[in-house]
Amino acid sequence: MKIALTGGSGFVGSNLIPYLLSCGEEVSVLSREQINSREFALPIDAEAFIHLAGKAHDLKKTPDADEYYKVNFELTKKLFDAFLSSNAKIFIFLSSVKASADSVNGVLDEESVPNPTTHYGRSKLKAETYMLSKPLPPDKRFYILRPCMIHGPGNKGNLNLLYKFVKAGIPYPFASFDNHRSFLSVENLCFIIIRLLKLSPASGIYNLSDDGYLSTNQVVEVLAAVLGKKPRLLHIPKKLLIFLSRIGDRFNLPLNSDRLTKLTEDYRVNNAKIKAIIGEDMPQNAVEGLKLTVKSFGI
Question: What pLDDT does residue 61 have?
Answer without folding.
Answer: 54
